[in-house]
Amino acid sequence: MDKHELTLASRPLVHGLLQRHPPAISELTFTNLFAWRHTRPVWFSVVQDTLLFWVTEKGGSEPTVLFGPPIGPLPIEEVTTIAPFSRIVRIPAPEAERLRQVGYDVAPDRDNADYIYRVTDLAELAGRKYAKKRNHVKNCLAQYHCEYVPFSPAVIAECLSMQSHWCKMKECAINLELTGEDAAIRATMEHFEEFGCIGGAIRVDGKIAAYAVAEPLSPETAVWHFEKALPDITGLGQLVTHWFAKEALTDFAYVNREQDLGIPGLRQAKESYYPDHLVEKFTVRIKK
Predict the structure, then answer these.
(1) What is the edge-to-edge ordering of all strands in the sheet holding 281-285?
(2) Phi-psi category of residue 156: left, alpha or beta, with phi > 0 → left and psi -120 to 50 → alpha
(3) Per-residue pLDDT, 61
(4) Which CA distances in Å does 160 have to 195, 224, 243?
(5) Among 91, 46, 95, 93, which residue's Cα sits nearest to residue 75?
(6) Which residue in 198, 279, 288, 229 sits closest to 28, CA to CA?
(7) What is the mean pLDDT of each run of 10 residues along the chain (288 residues)?
(8) In this structure, what are the phi and psi dihedrals at residue 76, rounded to the nearest 5 degrees?
(9) Distance (Å, rounded) from C-alpha 147 to C-alpha 205?
(10) Is the whole-model pTM more than 0.85?
(11) Where do the domains of the chain lie?
(12) Which of 46, 71, 148, 287 is 20 to 30 A removed from 2 (C-alpha atoms)?
């Protein structure tokens, strides 16, 4: 089975199949796979008009791990008979259950479960459960002059300048995870229009101080890739979440805000917005 390294030239093929067979999980957009390629190199195969993604085991050099479900008509049970693998990661519940039934070892991967929200919940922040969020937004607007602006080439350039400032504040240079994220953000910004992304930013007293980037995952769901707000402006994080949903995502019923990676603070923050549901994921191994 031929495995091809994911490159910019791969986009027409990969994106085309993803559009024909929209995935449920946040990882499977060309933007996500390409932007994170330095941190997580990805290969792909096409078998019977079905797209398979591959990554390496930690410390490995060969792509032997199937990454996500097959994209196309080939059932995952058939994929496992023709595509030798060491394990499968980021598999949604329906495919995982089918593999469990035919004898594979299936384990939940809670840290990578995706949080799915109703766009109207984030855009309106209505009801008692969002009272604290509304208060943060009101306090931010009371203290600062804030303006929402959609992405344009000039705004993207300002966002990259703000990202550099954010990285200095957070010491990205000595944090490998933040260094990788910074590279992914810059790759996404560089190809923003080409990848069909959606972006918005907030000026605070005239300067960009927050931004968010998303893209369509399926006809009814967007996937929210990145969000940054300068930490010294109280309430700005809540404001960019609220305004971006309200101004940029109302064509969608849902938004996938990706996983919490098992980070306690991030899990608490994502749960505080009351997700509609989670997209559970599983890891699959061959039983010994």
Answers:
(1) 4-5, 43-47, 50-56, 63-67, 87-92, 281-285, 105-108
(2) alpha
(3) 85
(4) 17, 18, 20
(5) 95
(6) 279
(7) 95 97 97 96 96 93 95 95 94 96 96 98 98 98 98 98 96 93 97 98 97 98 97 96 98 98 96 98 87
(8) -65, -30
(9) 8
(10) yes
(11) 4-113, 114-258
(12) 287
The two counts, helices (H) then strands (E), for the chain are 10, 14
What pLDDT, on the 0 to 100 scale, is given for residue 12? Answer: 97
Tokens 């229009």 sit at which residue?
A: 193
Q: Cα-Cα-Cα-Cα dihedral of 157, 158, 160, 164, to 10°?
A: 140
Q: SS3 sequence, 170-211?
A: HCHHHCHHHHHHHHHHHHHHHCCCCCCCEEEEEEECCEEEEE
Residue 49 has a pLDDT of: 96
The residues that bridge with 53 in the sheet, in sequence order, are 44
Return the CATH number of the domain spanning residue range 114-258.
3.40.630.30
How long a stretch of residues is the chain?
Answer: 288
Domains 4-113 and 114-258 share a fold: yes
Query: Which pLDDT does position 254 carry in this prediction?
Result: 98
Side chain identity at 41, as an amino acid letter? P
CB 145, CB 204: distance < 8 Å: yes
Q: Which residue has the tokens 């005239």?
A: 206
Q: Which of 206, 226, 205, 204 is nearest to 215 (CA)?
A: 226
Which pLDDT belongs to residue 288? Answer: 55
Neighbouring C-alpha atoms within 13 Å toward the C-beta of 113: 18
- Quick one: CATH architecture of 4-113? 3-Layer(aba) Sandwich (3.40)
